[in-house]
Structure formats: C-alpha cells, structure tokens
From TrEMBL:
Record-linked InterPro entries: Flavoprotein-like_sf, FMN_Rdtase-like_dom, NAD(P)H-dep_reductase
Molecular function via GO: FMN binding; oxidoreductase activity
A cellular component term, taken from the record's GO annotations: cytosol
Signal peptide: none
Recorded superkingdom: Bacteria
Coiled-coil segments on the chain, per record: none
Residue ranges annotated for the NADPH-dependent FMN reductase-like domain, each copy included: 7-153
Source species: Streptomyces cupreus
Pfam families cross-referenced by the UniProt entry: FMN_red
Protein name listed in UniProt: NAD(P)H-dependent oxidoreductase
Length: 198
C-alpha cells in the first residue's frame, strides 16, 4: 500500500436476493478511486460466512483467540487492515439488515479508533433510519462516525445505468471522502503514536 493512501473497506451490508447494494458500492468505489486518497476494497457480506449465533466470549476480550468461522477470515482480515470504512446499507423496517449487525458483532477491536462513513438507500427516507441506528452501534465499538454521508431516497427512480441521476452527487461524495480521509489520517497517526485507551 502506498503510504500516502488510506486502506478503505467498502461493506455491502445487504444479502437479500435482488439487492441494489452492489450497484451502490461499485459507484462508491469508483468515487473513492477518483478521489485518489484511498486504496479500496469492496467486501460483500453475501460472500461471507456470518452466523447469527455468537460464541459465549466477547471478541473484545478474546482477541486473536476468538473462534470465528473459517469463512469469515477474509472479512476479519479486511476489517483489521482497514484505515477507514464506508458502510453501504438499505433500510429494512426502519433499521439496517441483520447481516450487517452480525458482521459487526463478530468483531470489536477491528472497528476501534477508525472512521466510518455511511451510504444508504431506500424509499422516502433513503435509509436514514438505518444510519441513525448504525451510528449508535459503531460508537459503542469506539469507531468515529462521519457526519456527511450519502442517502438515496427512491433509488429505483433516481438511478440509471448504475449511476445516480443527480449531477451534484459526485460533489457530495467528495465531501464524504475528504472528511473520511482526514479522519483516517488523524486516527492512524494517533493509533501509531499510542494504544487507544478503550
């Protein structure tokens, strides 16, 4: 990895049949590449083994001994190596998918003292209820959530050929990525200088 670039992991949070998440994640990855501040990896939770049943021990205290399924190794490695995250999520019943909650709960230290931005999509609310819930959860894991996210209401009418129709959207994406890059650099420097006290 180039030292002037941050490792960005984009997470596709939905595993539902016919989901729109991969389309959004592909566009977000393209914006991140254009931005130039990131080395980008897209992680699709539909390709991971993420059981809902968790071990008795907490991943915070078990550390490297936490018994994760072998099929989760790529996810754990990506989260561990990331400097920053973008979570792409739909809104299901005013919240985010169970697949995303399970992926979060199987980990702890991998999120700590790292920035997380959100890109959501849905009906009239554009996934904003899902993001509000995710902000609470990831704050509990000592992640830093980014204020300026992207939300796509009525995505089924506002996207065409894998791209949002609003010509202003790339500018909004740049704002998100600028903030994410700043926090990624600041927090990586801080983690390298001293262990996070949490």
């Amino acid at each position: 990895m180039e030292t002037n670039k941050h490792k960005l992991v984009i997470i596709v949070g939905s595993v539902r049949d016919g989901r729109f998440g991969p389309v959004v994640a592909s566009w977000v990855a393209e914006q991140a590449e254009t931005h130039g501040g990131f080395e980008t990896e897209v992680i699709d939770l539909a390709e991971m083994d993420i059981p809902l049943a968790l071990p008795a021990a907490s991943p915070k205290f078990a550390g490297d001994d936490y018994p994760r399924p072998e099929g989760m190794a790529a996810l754990t490695s990506a989260l561990e190596g990331a400097d920053a995250f973008i979570v792409v999520t739909p809104e299901y019943n005013h919240s985010y998918p169970a697949s995303l909650k399970a992926a979060i709960d199987w980990h702890f230290t991998q999120w700590t003292a790292k920035p997380v931005a959100f890109v959501s999509y849905g009906g009239a609310a554009g996934g904003r209820h899902a993001v509000l819930h995710l902000e609470n959860v990831l704050t509990e894991l000592h992640a830093v959530t980014i204020r300026d996210g992207l939300a796509f209401p009525m995505y089924f009418t506002t996207w065409q050929d894998g791209r949002p129709l609003d010509p202003e959207t790339p500018g909004y994406a740049k704002t998100l990525l600028d903030q994410l890059s700043w926090w990624a650099g600041a927090l990586r420097t801080a983690r390298e200088a001293a262990p996070y006290p949490g």
